[in-house]
Amino acid sequence: MMRKPTGITKSKPEQRASREEVATRVPAPGEGKRGEQGYLGYLLRQAHAAVRLKMERTLADLGVTSPQFAVLTMLNAYPGLSGADVARLTFLTPQTVGVIIRNLDRDGAIVMTPHPVHGRIQQWTLTPRGSTLLKACRERVIDLETRLVTRLDGKAEATVRRWLAGIATDLQDGA
Description:
Elements: H1 6-9, H2 13-24, H3 40-59, H4 66-77, H5 83-90, H6 94-106, E1 110-114, E2 122-126, H7 128-148, H8 154-170
């Protein structure tokens, strides 16, 4: 049986240290692949994560999570949605929406009414308490949204909005 020379199997301490330094340095947002050279899909996800975290912190003392805010927003915009419709509009699983709806219903923020034709379908609408809660949330989130467009003029903002909406339209299933 042949033995490998020791120089092949063991790395030199100075080589190991330089590899560790490179491997442990995580670039900050805006650097390297987390910046303008990054993949668009990653940059969209990074931006979403930053917005969601900031929103969670902004709404925390109201006792509202980002997904709850999304549900309240959609029920305000489209009263009478079913839980399945809410899940599709908020990009949440039906199970998550079920928990959120139960909690919002328990807290008196939303109310259920049966569908006029399909009795098994439950429709959800905001109560006055839910509208007040959503208004308080919106006041805080508007500051965040204003911050998102700080570097954009009106034309650039319209372009970004059109681009983002176009992505969702162009990449939806079946298209």
